[in-house]
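About this split. The held-out portion is used to measure sequence recovery: a designer receives only the structure tokens and must propose an amino acid at every position. Recovery is the fraction of positions where the proposal matches the reference. Here is one held-out target exactly as it appears in the evaluation file.
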């Protein structure tokens, strides 16, 4: 069964125009992590089952080339079972052949524009590729079932699936991760699998699956378990399924990373728009700017949350012992249950600086569940979550 009727699409558009949005699963905090439950789980709207091992997969298509020369492209968001097997095409009644029309009707124009650039089919038929990914994989994710939505809007789960897929992809800049380790596309150089894994583990926190075709790098698969729904839950980086996992198909050495369009590609230079560059010296008054996957994107506001629009909060750094303390207008700043918080009831943490970046307990990588957009504010943690980031000091 293919595309929904035009009536459903018109209804979806009218609901968006009138401001009526469907509510996705409302999940209590502290729920079980997928693939870590000890028994049956009743609420499958807040627990991904049986596909509790979620993969964000990416392509490096060099011949024919797809997408920008300095970026990998999106493959999909897949719900593997916890043992590495998987189900597919789970609901014929929710298979669609009009993804573009659905996203347009839901007012997701920015999402669609991004997909047109980074979610590419090597045969040139992007729409069919998107349909395949949703029909094969999206219909098998339990938290996207229509019964999980209050005030359900037609095909709302389809838009939510692609929003989450793109959000995760934005936080996993494989090109930049590898380039930072000196691994760039080349017609002459070859690389060892151990070097690829070391580069990704430093950024993602876990090794992943690299796939090759005829000895040339072709795919990267990132694995997560999820606490809560796939739409809004906590994505926790994990290893491929065990026992055996999903092994990389690349050779141990001699891996080719072929440039797109035939040329050798150097890593791009990233510049920060406006304002002075971060100084790396935490002293006096300044902003705490956030960098994720090599690109500066917003800052920490006075509560300690990450925000990408509006004005940065002013922090005060004061020397303390071998490090320094931080304070915002809300009060002292510290790590509370692995979360960076500032407020009147927060006990000050003595922070450090590592390579010019904020560090807590000797670690300069922080994490968030998502990249904030619009008015969204996102907590920042020291424990592994979906999006790795660093925090720098910009003196004022």
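Reference sequence for scoring:
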């Amino acid at each position: 069964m293919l595309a929904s009727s035009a009536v459903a699409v018109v209804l979806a558009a009218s609901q968006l125009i009138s401001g009526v949005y469907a509510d996705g699963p409302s999940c209590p905090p502290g729920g079980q992590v997928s693939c870590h439950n000890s028994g049956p789980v009743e609420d499958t709207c807040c627990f991904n089952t049986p596909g509790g091992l979620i993969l964000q997969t990416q392509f490096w298509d060099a011949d024919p080339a797809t997408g920008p020369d300095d970026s990998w492209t999106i493959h999909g968001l897949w719900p593997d079972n916890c043992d590495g097997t998987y189900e597919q095409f789970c609901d014929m009644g929710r298979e669609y052949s009009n993804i573009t029309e659905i996203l347009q009707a839901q007012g997701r124009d920015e999402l669609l524009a991004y997909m047109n650039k980074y979610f590419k089919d090597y045969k040139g038929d992007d729409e069919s590729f998107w349909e395949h990914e949703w029909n094969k994989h999206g219909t098998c994710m339990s938290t996207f079932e229509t019964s999980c939505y209050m005030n359900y809007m037609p095909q709302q789960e389809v838009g939510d699936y692609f929003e989450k897929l793109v959000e995760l992809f934005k936080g996993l800049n494989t090109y930049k991760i590898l380039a930072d380790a000196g691994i760039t596309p080349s017609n002459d150089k070859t690389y060892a699998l151990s070097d690829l894994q070391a580069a990704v583990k430093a950024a993602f926190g876990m090794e992943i699956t690299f796939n090759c075709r005829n000895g040339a790098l072709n795919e990267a698969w990132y694995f997560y378990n999820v606490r809560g729904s796939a739409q809004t839950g906590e994505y926790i980086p994990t290893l491929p399924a065990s026992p055996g996992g999903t092994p990389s198909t690349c050779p141990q050495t001699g891996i080719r990373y072929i440039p797109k369009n035939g040329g050798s590609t150097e890593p791009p230079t990233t510049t920060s728009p406006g304002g002075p560059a971060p100084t790396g010296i935490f002293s006096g008054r300044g902003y705490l700017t956030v960098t994720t996957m090599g690109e500066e994107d917003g800052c920490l506001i006075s509560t300690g949350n990450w925000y990408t629009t509006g004005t940065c909060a002013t922090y005060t750094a004061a020397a303390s012992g071998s490090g320094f303390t931080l304070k915002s207008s809300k009060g002292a700043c510290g790590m509370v249950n692995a979360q960076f918080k500032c407020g009147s009831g927060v006990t000050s943490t003595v922070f450090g600086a590592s390579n010019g970046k904020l560090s807590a307990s000797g670690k300069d990588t922080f994490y968030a569940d998502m990249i904030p957009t619009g008015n969204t504010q996102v907590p920042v943690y020291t424990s592994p979550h979906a999006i790795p980031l660093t925090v720098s000091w910009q003196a004022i």
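Annotator remark: Confidence is low (pLDDT under 50) at residues 1-21, 264-279.
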